[in-house]
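Technical note accompanying the year-one report. For the benefit of new consortium partners, we illustrate the data format agreed upon in the data management plan: each record pairs a sequence with a structure-token string. No post-processing was applied to the example shown here.
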Amino acid sequence: MRKKIAIIDDDKKIRDLIKQYLNDQGFECFAGEQGKDLDQIIQKKDIDLIVLDLMLPNESGLDICKRVRVNKVNIPIIMLTAKGDEVDRIIGLEMGADDYLPKPFNPRELLARINSIFRRHEMETNENLINRSANIIKFDDFEFNSQERTLKKGQQSIDLTSGEFSLLKVFIENANQPLSRDQIMQLAKGKELDVFDRSIDVQISRIRKLIEANPNKPKYLKTKWGYGYVFELTPQS
């Protein structure tokens, strides 16, 4: 899909030039001359990036940028500034602009800045997805999030004690691998199992009651007789 760009500049010649050039480069552009125009464009279109002039009538580009960020609008912004406005460029970045470009400029440089921002945001999005995926394991209706320390069944949260969470985390991280009770204790609590310590078995019993349809005939957390336990799991995408 074509990326959508909003162009806000009160100079019609510059505005039309940018719009035509970016349209020719495969973007879908929407132009206006002041902050009210930008508000209408954002309301009607799913904008991917804003090219925003610093000097505008009624409301400056700095004020618009600040207002947009205060309203939690995270669309990338490239600020167009006069060549000598070093202080304004710094303030623009502090207000939440992603980049700035001093006038006069070559449209190819603007294109390079736009593509750079899109590449950066794509990389950040992919990294966030990878990190989120690495922290979440799904099995049937359950979702286990190791980072947020949560277990859900559908939309319902399931309360876990600290010990139950640590134990379930060990099993999920070592899914389909039989673990002895000594290994489980070492991985969950970082200590050797005392011969009289039955806390592992008690917590396993509790976890089974939380995730198994029939705790007496477990589907996931199974006993390996004479050895320990195994958490049988087929992760879902």
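Partners are asked to follow this layout when depositing records. The radius of gyration is 28 Å.
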